[in-house]
Specification:
The protein is an alpha+beta fold and 177 residues long. The protein has one domain. The chain contains 2 helices and 9 strands, in the order H-E-H-E-E-E-E-E-E-E-E. An 8-stranded antiparallel β-barrel has the order 1-2-3-4-5-7-8-9. The longest helix has 24 residues. It is elongated, with a radius of gyration of 27 Å. The protein starts with a helix and ends with a strand.
Length: 177
């Protein structure tokens, strides 16, 4: 009788082991999530805007929802990494419209630059792991110069702007693991 219990116990243990292994191998594979990702960014910090590499706070909405930053350093055609709490997302971008030099409006004393372009996702980490996608972006930068006592705009390079803003929008399909 003990031998049957022993054999039965081994058989039960084997059945449980095989069942567990089968369950583990039948576990669903990681699933790919896809949809539209929208990233918006804004700052009105004049000191940041005037720096050589302004850092813009951004928010991603869609497939991955997260807050982060990116830097406006580099050429108009290049690679940019967005540093989100949920992980990093690197894109290659190409400017398709807008200027490389600001336009000055003497009536409002605003110096502004508008650009638009396309991007392709290069890589991602954490929640952006395995990221693929592409899309469009728009960038707007403005600085308002102070006025002189006579009411004219102060054109001096040393004049400190009284206000400014950077606005950023990117949108397009994104897939992640």
């Amino acid at each position: 009788m003990k031998r049957l219990i022993g054999v039965g116990g081994v058989a039960l243990a084997m059945a449980l082991t095989v069942g567990t292994a089968a369950s583990a191998s039948a576990a669903p594979a990681p699933c790919r999530h896809s949809g539209t990702e929208v990233t918006t960014g804004f700052t009105n910090n004049v000191a940041d805007i005037l720096s050589n590499a302004p850092v813009v706070p951004v928010r991603a909405h869609g497939v991955v929802n997260s807050k982060g930053t990116f830097s406006l350093s580099g050429p108009s055609t290049g690679t940019t990494t967005f540093y989100y709490r949920a992980g990093d997302l690197t894109v290659k971008h190409t400017q398709t419209s807008g200027g490389s030099e600001p336009t000055f409006n003497p009536k409002t004393c605003v110096d502004s630059l508008s650009q638009a372009g396309v991007y392709t996702v290069v890589s991602g980490t954490k929640e952006f792991s395995g990221a693929t996608g592409h899309g469009w972006y728009k960038l707007y930068i403005a600085l308002k110069a102070p006025r002189l006592k006579n009411g004219q705009c102060n054109p001096s390079q040393s004049a400190v702007p009284v206000s400014g803003e950077i606005k950023f929008l990117a949108y397009g399909p994104l897939s992640v693991w």
